[in-house]
Specification:
Low-confidence stretches: none
Distance between the termini: 10 Å
Number of strands: 0
Largest sheet: none
Order of helices and strands: HHHHH
Number of helices: 5
Mean pLDDT: 92
Strand content: under 5%
Oligomer: single chain
Length: about 150
Amino acid sequence: MKKLENLVYKAAEYLCLAFMLLMVAIVVITVTGRYVFGRTPAWGDETAIACMIWLGLVSSSLAERDGRHIRITAVDKIYPPLLVKILHVVFYFVKVAFALVITVNSIKLVSFNRNVYMTGARISEAWVSLAGVFMGVFMIFFLICNFKKEVLGK
């Protein structure tokens, strides 16, 4: 399971890297076009924003895997260990439920946006909505892996 987790993590990490590099390249092209040539590519801003959406959503699942999201640890010190463990289990179920809601609604959004196109880039909005599906799937996978490690001790 650890190998699969590392493989999925690397895939998500490379996806983030690709969208970051693509976003930087698009912004450089757009800014150069605007200030050097006096013409801005019509597709520049939209595709840079789409890359930023992908980067933000997929990287949030990476943060969940590494435990980098903000959390209140005072509860862990105030309550007895058994109650803290029960709360952690509840928190995992709430997070998985949230990720499932995001995934299901993102799938609906992909279907809804398949015939809607960005005006400048002429790319279907479904591709942007697909970022939510990836985020949800990655997040559910990482939550299950973390649950097994933290709660079940495997």
